[in-house]
């Protein structure tokens, strides 16, 4: 009834631009905000008819939650603040405050406070994801209960998928020389994944006290031939930790590596004894709240555990010498230098998610060096050693390259068979406006659609025949 009334009235007296703008911001709902578009169309009839013009959804998106660039400084009202998401659990996000509105009374004590936030539902409706590491605008801040609501997300500089973290500047790939032993092929997988995202990489090799000095030296030479400069450390004997603390300063870093190599142990030692990191308690000021049935109270030391304790350190399995996956959630731990450090769950087998056949050669610094300046004669060459190709086979990781290429080929083929398109993340290029090349993501249309019973039956019959 209300809607009909609204429609009729709006038909007779089309609402003004600013009137609708206010209604949108008052969260009346997406449906009604389309009235804003019709009002806009009345003012400018070409708005949606011009094929060059952005779609209605794009306008709506831009209007309801305008994209903020990282350098934007939106004017904050008294109840707003800007912060970074440190961790996410269920529907709650923990945001560390970085900026508050200017006031006559110094508000420095609010900087660094941790707020428990929910996300504005509208962001999900218009397809804006919110990840750990995102810079966000929060509203309705309750400084006493330390609660707020995330109402907008700033643009991302980078995004990694596994684990999902935004705005990562640096990846620290940690392996151990022993227990579990470093596997060059697994290390190559981690490196290829990191190179494909285009984030700066540092390799650190832990537990160096468990092997001889000769072994350490041989790994140094080996990794240099791969065009990487490794760092060596031992959390057990506290060797080489200063250098690692130095590389982590002033940026958001994520530690990745197989399970059991000592990621959590390294984080704990950096937080407890190195100037590069500060204690959680100094930043995350305790709050009282009720989450997932767990009463959390800043006054009760027993319950402080959940968010302020050290990263839990696991055991190395006696049977296979591999770690046993101790770390579960991604959490950004604030560092003194202004940056953050995140621990991630360890993966024993790393699957290349977004690397395509075309992208793979660019993920090997050895190949990049060989084809520098367009020395390879062929366009889109897979560098398989054909005559005229600049890439030779006389480097250590060449067979890993071939192995990964084969793996991606099989994966792409099976996806093509299954869904009728190549792996998601593939990009097709086509000529756009004014001869500018535009990239279009190849999204799989059938992924979320169930196979029909007829097709299932036919496939089964086919399989039985052969
Ligand atoms: N000998 C030796 N053991 C270490 C060293 N660093 C860590 N460890 C041990 O390695 C085991 C695994 O450490 P974690 O820190 O849990 O490993 P992780 O990489 O975080 O493992 P996940 O959480 O499963 O990903 C623990 O028993 C640590 O005590 C080291 O430098 N030398
Ligand atoms: Zn080539």
TrEMBL record:
Q: Which InterPro entries match?
A: G_CP_dom, P-loop_NTPase, Ribosome_biogen_GTPase_RsgA, RsgA_GTPase_dom
Give the span(s) annotated as Disordered.
430-466
Write down a Pfam family by its short name. Answer: RsgA_GTPase
Q: Where is the composition biased (Basic residues)?
A: 447-456
UniProt keyword annotations, A-Z: GTP-binding, Nucleotide-binding
Nucleotide-binding found in the keyword field: yes
Indicate the segments forming the CP-type G domain, all copies: 157-350
Entries under SUPFAM superfamilies matching the protein: P-loop containing nucleoside triphosphate hydrolases
| Molecular-function GO term, any one | GTP binding
EngC GTPase domain sequence ranges:
166-348
Q: Which HAMAP family match?
A: GTPase_RsgA
Q: Which protein is depicted?
A: Predicted protein
User: Could you tell me which species this protein originates from?
Assistant: Arabidopsis lyrata subsp. lyrata (Lyre-leaved rock-cress)
């Amino acid at each position: 009834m209300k809607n009909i009334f609204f429609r009729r009235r709006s038909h007779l007296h089309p609402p003004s631009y600013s009137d609708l703008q206010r209604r949108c911001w008052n969260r009346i709902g997406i449906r009604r905000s389309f009235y804003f578009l019709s009002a806009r169309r009345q003012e400018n009839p070409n708005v949606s008819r011009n094929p060059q013009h952005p779609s209605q959804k794009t306008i709506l998106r831009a209007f309801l939650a305008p994209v903020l660039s990282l350098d934007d400084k939106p004017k904050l009202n008294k109840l707003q603040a800007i912060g970074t998401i440190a961790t996410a659990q269920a529907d709650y996000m923990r945001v560390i405050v970085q900026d508050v509105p200017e006031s006559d009374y110094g508000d420095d004590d609010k900087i660094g406070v941790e707020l428990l936030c929910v996300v504005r539902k509208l962001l999900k409706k218009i397809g804006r994801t919110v990840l750990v590491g995102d810079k966000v605008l929060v509203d309705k801040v309750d400084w006493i209960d330390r609660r707020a609501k995330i109402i907008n997300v700033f643009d991302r500089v980078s995004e990694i998928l596994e684990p999902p973290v935004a705005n990562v500047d640096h990846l620290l790939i940690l392996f151990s020389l022993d227990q579990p032993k470093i596997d060059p092929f697994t290390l190559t997988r981690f490196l290829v994944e990191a190179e494909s995202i285009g984030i700066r990489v540092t390799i650190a090799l832990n537990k160096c006290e468990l092997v001889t000095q000769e072994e350490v030296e041989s790994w140094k030479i080996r990794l240099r031939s791969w065009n990487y400069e490794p760092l060596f450390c031992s959390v057990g004997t506290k060797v080489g930790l200063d250098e690692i603390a130095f590389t982590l300063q002033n940026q958001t870093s994520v530690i990745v590596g197989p399970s059991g190599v000592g990621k959590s142990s390294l984080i704990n030692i950096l937080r407890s004894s190195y100037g590069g990191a500060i204690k959680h308690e100094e930043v995350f000021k305790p709050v009282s709240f009720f989450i997932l049935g767990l009463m959390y109270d800043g006054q009760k030391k027993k319950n402080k555990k959940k968010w302020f304790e050290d990263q839990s350190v696991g055991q190395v399995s006696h049977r296979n010498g591999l770690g046993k996956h101790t770390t579960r959630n991604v959490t950004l731990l604030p560092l003194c230098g202004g940056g953050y450090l995140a621990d991630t769950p360890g993966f024993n087998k790393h699957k290349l998610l977004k690397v395509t056949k075309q992208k793979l050669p660019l993920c090997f610094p050895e190949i990049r060096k060989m084809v520098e300046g367009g020395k390879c004669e062929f366009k889109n060459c897979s560098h398989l050693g054909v005559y005229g190709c600049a890439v030779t086979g006389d480097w250590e990781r060449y067979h890993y390259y071939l192995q990964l290429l084969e793996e991606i080929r099989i994966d792409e083929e099976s996806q093509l068979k299954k869904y009728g398109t190549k792996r998601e993340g593939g990009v097709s290029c086509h000529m756009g406006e004014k001869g500018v090349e535009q990239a279009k993501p190849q999204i799989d249309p059938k992924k979320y659609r169930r196979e029909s019973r007829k097709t299932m039956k036919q496939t089964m019959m086919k399989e039985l025949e052969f």
